[in-house]
Amino acid sequence: MVPVLGEQEFRDLMAGVCAPVTVVTTADGGVPYGATVSAFASLSLRPPMVTVALDRASGVLARITDTARFGVNVLGRSQDGLALGFARRGTDRFAGVDWHLDSGLPRLAAAPGWLVCELDRVVDGGDHLLLLGTVTRARTLPGAPLVYGHRTFGTHSAYADRLHRGIRDQVAACAR
């Protein structure tokens, strides 16, 4: 008989896995909705797709499944305040936040990464649902990402401290 892994043991193990920090947004009737999500990853290049996992009880999840569209704001190294604000329940998460509609979805002005997604399908994932989204638009600015690991926010220190050219610049120089 295989022993059953305890919930707390699994939580503790997964706390050590660094994850990107995003704010997933949607709009319904012009009203913005958003939630902090660290269960975000790229899925496919052809076509460009991402995955986002949301708790089944999430109000944002219900709005996304109704509208079949969502935005992903990829947060930068100093945006832990935004992450905490969008993680709170029962508050107006957009109050005091600089945001605007971009392709009909709420985009946080300060987020260095932005994706517009069409909902492709929803997959059962235990107490969460996994949303598969086709990316129809993306924008990015250089900057260190905000990550979550060991129950704290941080960044990829090598990226934040680097003084040399990025790999894309180095590859482009070699191609000349």
TrEMBL record:
Keywords: Oxidoreductase. The keyword Repeat does not apply. Residues 14-155 form the Flavin reductase like domain. SMART domains: Flavin_Reduct. It is an enzyme of class 1 (oxidoreductase). Its EC number is 1.-.-.-. Pfam families: Flavin_Reduct (PF01613). The keyword Oxidoreductase applies. It comes from the Bacteria. One of its GO terms (molecular function) is oxidoreductase activity. PANTHER family: FLAVIN REDUCTASE, FMN REDUCTASE (NADH) RUTF. This is Flavin reductase family protein. It comes from Streptomyces exfoliatus (Streptomyces hydrogenans).
